[in-house]
């Protein structure tokens, strides 16, 4: 969906135009989401960034399942296998049920989820809060309870709820609405409650591209919330998303996380340094990690990044706090919306520090005394990409352009 790749702050700016906001929805079932799911960010796969509509089929899903196992991704912790837009028939059945496209799912969804569950994986599907999905398949508006029950009967474990074709204050129900007067909250509350009543635990992944400053209320509605327009296969896109995620790190916590969007590693738009930074930033920002590339063509270097045990442990840390910018003494202050080299965040047993060569090749050095959560004295560090270790009061990395190092720091 090309026209969703709007700069994130374009959406925020539109929201601040000064119109009176619509009345907030009456909460029906919950005051906050405590569905027991998503206590750490979801780890898995989504087919969208690898060819969009073309792989929303049973065959493709089962191939991905095999590869998740044979490549060791399941053993590394990736459990969700998610199919995005275009899996459904264009029309509901005569009883109003969603129907899987019989050409793409000849036996329907259930036998596929059964197989995937039998392989020790979980299965996710995609839908929409409006009248249609972004690619024009049936949306759930007005059918939420019925759809949630259907998903539960199919054995679905994860539901991504998009925001196309919702009513827009500028008129009608356009494919995408960025008008700040048109709140998405009520639609997400309805689906949250429908899923809660469906009789099966289903992780609720909200996808409304950061509208309505969703990070400020998302934890009461879903297990994660997209905080930006769609990621593109480029450094500038991921740098922009990461910079905006740094601003909202405080909203991540067990049960609800900022979703920086599906990964683009493996898709050819990033060099090795940039792939390292993409993965490093997403993992320390505690984003859900959804691999978005053709697993049958994965380079060994990309696979190693995705299976990096130390980095996965940081993303899955039980504290669930996201890293954000910190400013070392003597360095220029961060600029809102611009990627900054210095990142840190708390872990249950230490601190994670990220160093990113945002502008070009550079040697980045920090004193641990400047890092929030650390202080003067000697600290032990391990770098997750190189396995380098050390003890001292500072650390320094000579980096190529756009490369990144991630340090786990503990008491010496
Ligand atoms: C929107 C979402 C994407 C993807 C497509 C599918 O653009 O933000 O992640 O799901 O719709 O049409």
Structure characterization notes:
This protein is an alpha/beta fold and 412 residues long. It has 2 domains: 8-315, Alpha-Beta Barrel (TIM Barrel); 324-411, Golgi alpha-mannosidase II (Immunoglobulin-like, Sandwich). Helices cover 23% and strands 18% of the residues. The chain contains 10 helices and 16 strands. The protein has helices spanning 8-15, 58-70, 73-76, 110-118, 144-154, 185-196, 235-246, 272-284, 300-306, 309-315, and strands at 43-46, 80-82, 122-128, 158-162, 203-206, 224-226, 257-259, 289-291, 324-325, 342-347, 350-356, 362-367, 379-383, 389-392, 394-399, 404-411. Strands 7-6-5-4-3-2-1-8 form an 8-stranded parallel β-sheet, with helices on one face. Strands 9-10-11-16-13-14 form a 6-stranded antiparallel β-sheet. Strands 12-15 form a two-stranded antiparallel ribbon. Helix 7 runs parallel beside helix 8 and helix 8 packs parallel to helix 9 (300-306). It starts with 7 loop residues before the first helix and ends with a strand. Mean pLDDT is 93; it is low at 1-31. Bound molecules: alpha-D-galactopyranose. Keywords: Disulfide bond, Glycosidase, Hydrolase, Signal. Hydrolyzes a variety of simple alpha-D-galactoside as well as more complex molecules such as oligosaccharides and polysaccharides.
